[in-house]
Amino acid sequence: MIKKNSLSFRIISHVLAITVFLFVVIISFNYYYSRTTIKESATENAIFLANNTVAKIEQILQPMEKIPAMVAALMEVQPIDRDSLFRIVKAIVENNETIYGAAIAFEPGFFPEKGRYFAPYAYRDGDQVETMSLGGQHYEYFFMDWYQIPKMLNRPYWTEPYFDEGGGNQLMATFSVPFYQIINGERTFAGIATVDLDLDWLTDIVSEVKIFESGYAFMLSGNGMAVTHPDRTMIMNKSVYSNAEEWNAPILREIGRDLREGISRFREYQLPGRANSWIYYRNLDSNLWAIAVVFPDKEMFAELHRMGTIIISLFILGLILLTMSTAGIVNRLASPLAHFADSARTIANGHFDQKLPEIKTKDEMKELHDAFSHMQDELARYVVNLKETTAAKEKIESELRIAREIQMAMIPHSFPPFPDLPQIDLYAILRSAKEVGGDLYDFFMIDKRFYFAIGDVSGKGVPASLFMAVTRTLLRSIADKESSAKGIMEGLNKSLASNNESNMFVTFFLGIIDLRTGIMQYANAGHNPPVIIKPDGQVRMFDKAKAIPLGLFEDFDFPELSLQLNEGDKIFAYTDGVNEAENQQEELFGDDRMLHIIQQNRDKHPKELILHLEEAVLSFVNDHTQSDDITMMTILYNGKT
Amino acid sequence: MNVTVITKDEHTVVALRGRLDTTQADAVEKEVVEILDQKHSHIIFDCKEMDYISSSGLRIFLIAQKRMMATGGQLKLCSLQAGIQEIFDMSGFSMIFSIFPDLESALNG
């Protein structure tokens, strides 16, 4: 349907190229921009989730911290009712659901009557709250973290989370607050008040965090142990530091270090063999425990990629629709062109009435149709015209050909003309240029006198040939009445000059040889002077004319000259078609060249002399168009005999 | 063929340049006849740059001469190139025209 290089192919390929280019630019920009935005919003989201989780945890932790602090404050007020202490710890546990146990542990031997260990402790046992005193040979509580560290630090302390081994594998952490008593006026460390916190609720809060498809949160203890994690096997298993070693993942060590120093950070997070992810982590406000939010990179952009896939699919669909509709439109618009081409071919074969494709629209196609139709009409008219003009031209041409034939028939051309007159031999040619011309020659005998004439009418064409015919006719009729060259010339001139509105003229040379005496009378009316060739090799031009051409002024006086001819003398007469023949370089054949060739052929018979000259002229002119008639006549006088 | 006309004192100088051959003759004739129609009393044909003349060209000069003679005006030719002078001599036209060797002598003569 769509050929390569066809109009529709080119339009469609251009439209598609531009569309695809625009689409790629827009989509690339949009993709890049969306990616940045999504990343920013994912970061914000992760930070928000982490902060929110921290806030939720703090909301529970902070009230808990107040309980041992209050107990500690109470312990600094003396005296202490030792037995009421069991009630206090019991009440604390009973009244706080999240508290698993509470203890008030004193320095060894603080109450001498109680012995080395005194630490009232309440704890949950199923639905009951039991009390007991901690301490014994197997539980030297003074050396436990929850006791020793706050004592040394002199400040409250959260222990690392741990599994309570006694009560149902509970995840717990202990908050310890040191208390003091004034002994001998000195503020002396007296013991530690604690609460044990059941940390199961932490798992609930942290596992609530969901981000993207599989994003999650987990909590780390100050030592870098997972306190909560979606993968339960990770919980309280190994610290980030040992995982860093094991998995060859230095990033875990960096995270541990950051959290120890209280630094929060959003960063790329890739564990060996796992998908590239992003992580945000921060400490709690209360202690060095930390919340981390993790989500995979590809999920962050999953929505973007899904959108991209949809957009590209839609775009491809759009391209197909665009291609089809463009092809449809272009084909519909351009289909008349093929018909026009067919019509043009048919018209070119001469069927001007070929029906053109019908155009209903008013667009450029309509203009083309109208122009075509106009061309058809014009062609038809033109061809009719052409036929007429050709016919007319052929008619004119045939008439001109006839005119030329008549013109040529007027001059004698049977040679030798007077076989029974040994005194005279002659040869002449008139080689016309393309159109009918104005050259003429003539010769005839009247009473032993030989008349010869050569002439050249100004201009060319039918006027010149008519003028020539008139001249030739007048010459014969005047020669019947006048016998002298002068008389004939003046008679000719008078006739030609009267009513010569067009100011045409003819250069004319007339010679009359009396065969009895050899005397030649002649008159020259502005014609090229003939050449006389003597048998001794002398070649010489006649003097220039003493008179103007015939036909100019009615009463002009034409002088007559005479010359004695001897046996063997030749007279060569010609028109300017010979000496003014021109070659392509616009050089003239010239008198000198003409005389030179005559000299070379001076002994030749008139016919040979003329043929040699003609050949020389033609080869000089070569390819250049012959512009003027070429006329030559040579008369050989053989003596009186 | 290029024809230009300038006026010097009472003289109208018509300068002819190029080849006055048969194909050009009709156009030149028209231009010359237009100049003649303006009835100048003194006309000089300056032929300094006229390289060629055919018999049809000669006819134009002849028309001019006849018209000037009829109106009692004066026609002069000047600065004919050698080849053209020869044509004038050969055809006897030298006898019916006043021919001057250059423009200056034509203006003064």
Structure description:
The complex is a heterodimer of chains A (641) and B (109). The mean pLDDT of chain A is 88. Chain A is an alpha+beta fold and 641 residues long. Among the domains of chain A are: 303-380, no CATH class; 411-637, PPM-type phosphatase domain (Phosphatase 2c, domain 1, 4-Layer Sandwich), CATH 3.60.40. In chain A, 44% of the residues lie in helices and 22% in strands. Chain A is rod-shaped, with a radius of gyration of 69 Å. In chain A, helix 10 (461-481) crosses helix 11. In chain A, a hairpin with a 4-residue loop joins strand 16 (506-514) and strand 17. In chain A, strands 1, 2, 3, 4, 5, 6 and 7 form a seven-stranded antiparallel sheet that branches. Chain A has a five-stranded antiparallel sheet with strand order 9-8-12-11-10, sandwiched between helices. In chain A, strands 13-22-21-18-19 form a five-stranded antiparallel sheet. Chain B has 109 residues and is of the alpha/beta class. Chain B has one domain (15-108): Transcription Regulator spoIIAA. Helices cover 44% and strands 34% of the residues of chain B. Chain B contains four helices and five strands, in the order ββαβαβαβα. Chain B has helices at 22-37, 55-71, 82-90, 103-108; strands spanning 2-8, 11-20, 42-53, 74-78, 98-100. A five-stranded mixed sheet of chain B has the order 1-2-3-4-5, with helices on both faces. Chain B is globular, with a radius of gyration of 12 Å. Chains A and B meet through loops of A and helix 2 and helix 3 of B.
Quick synopsis:
Chain A has helices at about 5-75, 85-95, 145-155, 200-205, 240-245, 250-260, 295-300, 300-350, 365-410, 460-480, 485-495, 575-580, 590-600, 605-620, and strands at about 100-105, 120-125, 130-135, 155-160, 160-165, 170-185, 185-200, 215-220, 225-230, 265-270, 275-285, 290-295, 425-430, 440-445, 450-455, 505-515, 520-525, 530-535, 540, 560-565, 570-575, 630-635.
